[in-house]
UniProtKB/TrEMBL annotation:
The chain crosses the membrane at residues 64-86. Residues 12-88 form the Cation-transporting P-type ATPase C-terminal domain. Pfam families: Cation_ATPase_C. Gene3D superfamilies: Calcium-transporting ATPase, transmembrane domain (1.20.1110.10). It comes from gut metagenome. Residues 95-123 are annotated as: Disordered. GO terms for molecular function: hydrolase activity. Residues 104-123 have a biased composition (Basic and acidic residues). Coiled coil: none annotated. This is Membrane protein containing ATPase, P-type cation-transporter. Its EC number is 3.6.3.-.
């Protein structure tokens, strides 16, 4: 929700790589935890829910919307604090430290020794 709202107002909070990383972390570990959790006793003896009940029945839809709105507000607030109060000076600190020297070496005309393309796999 935060990414959607930020995109609608013209900001780019997260790049696609960041979204993929968040998706990986937020999906893998909870799925592993659910897969390793033992089954509740008597779960198969319970009656199924009515097919007429919606997915968000019983106030679940309101809870999901409220929690999503709160998370989106705090995410956008933290982004605006970093962008406007810190003048965005911490924006590029998440890049790999080795990227700078490698790129500077290439810009200076040094050979591409760090590429590793000329190194045989089996020596």
């Amino acid at each position: 929700m935060a990414v959607f709202v930020a995109t609608m107002i013209g900001f780019t909070i997260l790049e696609p790589v960041h979204l993929l990383w968040i998706n990986l972390i937020t999906d893998c570990f909870p799925a592993l935890a659910l897969g390793m959790e033992p089954a509740e006793p008597g779960i198969m003896r319970r009656a199924p829910r009515s097919s007429k009940d919606g997915i968000f029945a019983g106030g679940m839809g309101i809870d999901v919307l409220f929690q999503g709105a709160v998370i989106a507000c705090f995410t956008l607030l933290s982004y605006f604090i970093g962008e406007y109060f810190l003048d965005g000076r911490h924006r590029h600190r998440r890049r790999a430290p080795e990227l700078g020297p490698r790129q500077r070496g290439r810009d200076d005309g040094l050979p591409h020794a760090l590429d590793g393309r000329d190194v045989p796999l089996l020596q």
